[in-house]
Amino acid sequence: MVHHTPPRFQAAAFNCPLCGAYSKQIWLNMQRHYPTRAMIDGKELRIAQCTSCNKMTFWLDGRMLPPDSGSVPFRNPDQPDELKQD
Known about the structure:
This protein has helices spanning 30-33, 81-84, and strands at 13-15, 22-29, 39-40, 43-50, 56-60, 63-64. It is mostly beta strands. The longest helix is centred in the middle third of the chain and has 4 residues, at 30-33.
């Protein structure tokens, strides 16, 4: 079984939700670079950049904003009903 490390706020590395690779994440502090754009409705915006694909995930107040696309495959329609609920 392949090990999967889900994204976690400020983690040094995890499986990128955009490319699927387990890779180091470079965390960018928006407050330091763009102080007027670092807050949304009083919540801090942070960015993690994947060192494998160089794409970015956006985090608001410690929670990842869902990407438009990802590397997780769709559920197989032939999957047994008891597994579809997971």
